[in-house]
């Protein structure tokens, strides 16, 4: 006797939409992550990213404390202005924001009087970290369009771009070229089906990829969201504002290696990697590595000049110099206390997350936009 598989209300809604036409994976990923009622990031009782995927923020407060030291240095370089506006996008409940703000108030009294903290986050749980109730320096917006133009001194985002919805494509060989993997329906099960490329923009991006050593069946993903995102963000930044992007990824020369036959798309549920990108929509995280070469190209077109791209471990090690020196001076040769040991362990975790974890630092140059 056959049993009909129980579908969630979200799956039923997706299947009804597919009956009209197959979805691109980008459309599916946008629904799965950001549907206002059932999306992974909008419906989670706890922040989805911290529930299912290890991040710099989930290590502890060390990452935010180091970022506070960085921001203080940028404020000093700018001449210690009376007001300094920082903007974070994609911070979920505000764990990193709370770490940064509390560290600024604890370590930099003058800077704490100048800091204004803006958060852009669409989740219903945005900026609900209870520690934020102690501070009045922050405010929340739900969209970049709500941020005044040329008002931001420093922008940062931690693991934001990897959650931008992407197209999934397959190389069919020199004779047939690229096809797009659409989300279709087969016997009440979501599945991939090859179809035509959904846009000329996607087709143009694919011409940049060297396919000479690809075997038919090579799959990768293309992020077309970076350019419109930067076009919206860049005008919000002041001249000479700093932009920091923390994420995992690689340059295009590594991203599109012939050996990377399945791309970088991954799904996570209950702290485990899932083998099915289309399973349990709204209940698992979907993420793709960042093509940092493409990010740099699009950033320059948006008036942002790249100052550095390096492994996150190197960046954080430089920032840790002063905190570690202060800790050494405070301990004066005695054994580290519990708080110091915890901080050191967090720092060691942050600097051992692997070479794919990178930071890109950019400078807003209004004249070049």
In CATH terms, the superfamily of the largest domain is: Vaccinia Virus protein VP39
Q: How large a portion of the residues is in β-strands, by DSSP E?
A: 25-35%
Q: In the CATH scheme, what's the topology name of the largest domain?
A: Rossmann fold
User: Based on DSSP secondary structure assignment, what is the total number of beta strands?
Assistant: 16
N/C terminus separation: 65 Å
Provide a descriptive summary of the structure in words.
The protein is built from 15 helices and 16 strands. The chain is α/β, with parallel strands linked by helices and 369 residues long. The strands form 3 sheets. Strands 2, 3, 4, 5, 10, 14, 15 and 16 form an 8-stranded mixed β-sheet that branches. The chain has helices at 9-20, 25-34, 40-43, 48-52, 56-59, 62-77, 95-107, 109-114, 200-206, 226-233, 252-255, 292-301, 312-319, 321-331, 338-350, and strands at 23-24, 84-89, 115-120, 138-141, 152-158, 167-171, 178-186, 189-195, 218-222, 237-250, 266-269, 272-274, 285-287, 290-291, 304-311, 357-364. The mean pLDDT is 90. The protein folds into 2 domains: 21-38 and 164-223 and 254-287, no CATH class; 50-162 and 227-249 and 290-368, Vaccinia Virus protein VP39 (Rossmann fold, 3-Layer(aba) Sandwich), CATH 3.40.50. The protein is globular, with a radius of gyration of 22 Å.
